[in-house]
Amino acid sequence: MERKNTFNEIAREYDKYRPDYPEQLFTDILEYSSLNPYDKILEIGCGTGQATKGFVQSGYCHITGIELGEHLADLTREKFKDIPTVKIIHSPFETWQNEGTSFHLAISGTAFHFIQPQDYGYRKVFDLLGSQGSIAFFWTVHVPSYDNLSNQIRDIYRRCAPQLDDSTNPSMQQIIEERSNAILKEGLYKDLEVKQYRWDDPYSAREYVSLLNTNSRHRLLPEDIRSRLLGEIGEAIEKKGGTIHKPQAVVLFLAKKNGAKKDD
Predict the structure, then answer these.
(1) 3: pLDDT strictly greater than 60
(2) Three-state DSSP class for 104?
(3) Alpha carbons 107 and 129: distance in angstroms, whole number
(4) How far is CA 52 from the centre of its chain?
(5) DSSP state, 58?
(6) I need a surface site. Which of 8, 58, 153, 162 has the fewest CB within 10 A?
(7) Domain 3-143+170-200+247-257 - what CATH class?
(8) 134 pLDDT band (50/70/90 cuts)?
(9) Do residues 104 and 125 make contact, with C-beta atoms less than 8 angstroms apart?
(10) Rounded to two decimals, what is the model's pTM?
């Protein structure tokens, strides 16, 4: 199973335990894109509608969401069933055929890296945007901690699933540089802005284990290894008082369609 397919099998758990995106992120997107409430938004990989909800609550409801996972699409469609301008389509973005609609804004929350090849994805978005269109792609980024409890958990990973040792992850700056370069690579987009949002969330041992169980790389572990890994992590948190404080980070990439760039 590919990583991008793992979320579909745990749609409701993903919806329950993944943190919401911060309100300021939506404010910044709306300001940058000069969006009005009737402009059309394309959402790539809408998942369980967490980002969709942020725009709907802000009064921007003309959204077409494309989602690979059938269960995810069904869940999000049910959430917004009373808003006819929110349309959720079950399809891979790569093969989805647009019906001539031009979008003012394309968004993607912790999903666009699954579009392959990336060059094709950025080109397709470019073609779907109107002349004044913008993109707002954002990702939740893991921030490692090095307090006693975090170090104990890291030791558990090294014993049970060393490939998930977070000390080997790319740095925040490396992630920003890589994704900025991907956006600007073909000259399709301009006026790139990058914003970061940081906060801490407390989790009980059960909540934290449930959160980890929605992570795609954890989902791909053999069941016995995943069970042992999560069990030992839960026990470590319980022994340290039953609560872990996880630093959260979201990085937002904003860019405008380069109107001077002609189609090949």
Answers:
(1) no
(2) strand
(3) 11
(4) 12
(5) T
(6) 162
(7) alpha beta
(8) very high
(9) no
(10) 0.92
